[in-house]
Amino acid sequence: MKTYETHRTIEGVWTVESARIIAGVARIVQDVSIAEDLAQDTLAIAMEKWPESGIPEKPGAWLMTVAKRRAIDFLRQNKLRDQKYEEIGRNMEFKTDYDSIEEEINDDLLRLIFTTCHPVLSREARVALTLKLLCGLKTDEIARAFLMSESTIAQRIVRAKRTLSASKVPFEVPHGLELSSRISSVLEVIYLMFNEGYVANGGENWIRPTLCNEAIRLGRILAEILPEEPEVHGLIALMEIQASRFKARIGPSGEPILLQDQNRVLWDDLLIHRGFSALKRIEQIGGTYGPYSLQASIAACHAKARTATETDWQEISALYDALALVAPSPIVELNRGVAISMAFGPEAGLKIVDSLLLDQVLKNYHLLPSVKGNLLLKLGRKREAFEEFQRAASLTQNVQEQKFLLKQAKVCME
After folding, report:
1. Which of 35, 125, 128, 332 is the S-S candidate for 25 at Cβ 3.0 to 4.6 Å?
2. pTM passes above 0.85
3. CA 348, CA 389: separation in Å to the nearest integer?
């Protein structure tokens, strides 16, 4: 195999294995920043050796073994030779059973997930660090995904690592009461990642599939590691069903297509089926329905309807009622208003929307005037609807969405 082809193969292997390797090394050195550096050293060794020796039979295990040995060398060089490290070193010197190495991977990955999503970090830092260490995205790829400069993302990641180190965040899986709140933090990061890809806040494109795909991949890993956590399966179900609509959500010029106007033939039946299976898994483990599971159930109602007119809006509004009790927020209430309008008429929905007009959380949220404009248009109040769509267009930073809202405003004047 030519050197160029070998390097491409190595890069492919690295994309799949990097998170596991960083996680395995971090357990030894107890520092994700050092672990990433040592993992990168291991990648450099593979780039040097594999073109000559060939790709190992188990490349992931080869990389893990070399990386862990470098971690032991690092500890020795820094004179950290207490009993714990000596024991790790002895085990590593004689460990050649690749299958036994694989058994440790899930635990290490789980530790890494809880570390990169630690509440001591800001939401933005958690997302950036998770994309870097767990999803294997390069800094420039993350920057492009969020329409930011590479230097800004790089600084964010560096600061996140420093914060984890300065706060002495342990590289471990939390236990007891802390576990539930920490799982919520992890799920929040994954869903933030997915949502930014599903409806991009800014830029030329309405969707960014890369972020959605990485979020789903990470969610699937988490579901394998934590098979008895209902909300993990709820989040997976929600993302799978929403992702099934990708092909139908944008038109030829990249313009948004609303749910009721989508060609449902284009929806991905495989992803819908996977979403339904994840919801069924919650029932099998006897789990209660939390915020993600309820949102997934709402998405499932849409997925079951093969045409927009077949949608059971009364069931959806009831699910939003439940969601408002479990996870009350102005945005949930806004979505509940939409569901109520579809089930019981635009006037009923408008009452809910009007009650949110003074909410500070929604002050600059473009979907509030967008929803109100749509309800006013249905009621024949075109002039008022025009003003709401104009306001919504002025608030969004996404070019495609802005064009769509201005088009809606134009319809009001016809």
Report:
1. 35
2. no
3. 20
